[in-house]
Amino acid sequence: MKKFFQMVGILTLMVGSFVYTEKVGTTAKLSDTLLTEIKSNKDGYKENAIEPIIKDETIIPGINGKEVDVDKSYEAMSKIGYFDDKLLVYKPLEVENTLDKNKDKYVINGNNTKMDVTLLFKVGNNDDITNIISILDSKEAKGTFFIESKYLEKHHNQIIKLVQNGHTIGNLSNNEDYEDSDFVWMKTILTNIGPQIYNYCYTEKPKTKAIRVCKIQDSITIMPSIIIKDNPFINIKKELTPGAIISLDVNKTLNTQIEMILNYITSKGYHIVSLEELLKE
């Protein structure tokens, strides 16, 4: 009887070992197949980086690409045992010639491979932008507000809220004089307010002294591709293009037409994004 139970035990171990080996073999085959499938498909999901367009003193930023991280994608899919492109994990392919390396250039446009545009509002010291902010927020659109030092002094809390809500703030110093001490004071305040990637200067034509000072102060200089002083709705209809940076003076006409402008831009399939978002590589 004792020998009988020993034989039964041995047979049970043999069967268990066979089943375990079979499972391990099946799992290994599935893993090999999955890994092979990820490797064979990865190039189809690759997006190459787009380098910036640099011409003379101007730059249009590039866009980072991405490629499949085979090891991390395999780790994610091995939990379900089959290929699912929703579980692909990517690693970035970064632009080589970044904005950080080109602060001596005027940024004239965002990359035109995306249907994004930026509305840049030039705010005078006595302008009221409450209505513009309200309409932007109601449309879930983001604006970019270039302000002077006196406006910042008077509306500090408003500026903090704008940054917190995802809008971008640019620096006009004192009357767009970047050699004025207000420029550095404003830069310090805006840097401390919140999570903007860059500090921004503004010009409507090349200014050697201004861009030199802005570069020293680690700032990006914007020279908008579209500058509109009056009849904003009509002019935007004429000039709207992908990646456009559209400069608008804050005035009574703009306040009247701003909702119509936003509706028109979005009806054409564009996204109204902040300058930060437009220039993101």
Description:
The chain is of the alpha/beta class and 281 residues long. It has ten helices and 13 strands. It has helices at residues 2-41, 70-77, 130-138, 149-154, 156-164, 181-193, 208-216, 232-239, 252-267, 275-278; strands at 53-55, 58-60, 65-68, 90-93, 106-107, 116-122, 144-147, 168-171, 199-202, 219-222, 226-228, 245-249, 271-272. Strands 6, 7, 8, 11, 12 and 13 form a six-stranded parallel beta sheet that branches. Helix 3 runs parallel beside helix 9 (252-267). The longest helix has 40 residues, at 2-41. The model is unreliable at 1-30 (pLDDT under 50).
Q: What is the strand and helix layout of this fold?
A:
Layout: H1 2-41, E1 53-55, E2 58-60, E3 65-68, H2 70-77, E4 90-93, E5 106-107, E6 116-122, H3 130-138, E7 144-147, H4 149-154, H5 156-164, E8 168-171, H6 181-193, E9 199-202, H7 208-216, E10 219-222, E11 226-228, H8 232-239, E12 245-249, H9 252-267, E13 271-272, H10 275-278
Parallel strand pairs: 2-5, 5-10, 6-7, 6-12, 6-13, 7-8, 9-10, 11-12
Antiparallel strand pairs: 1-2, 3-4
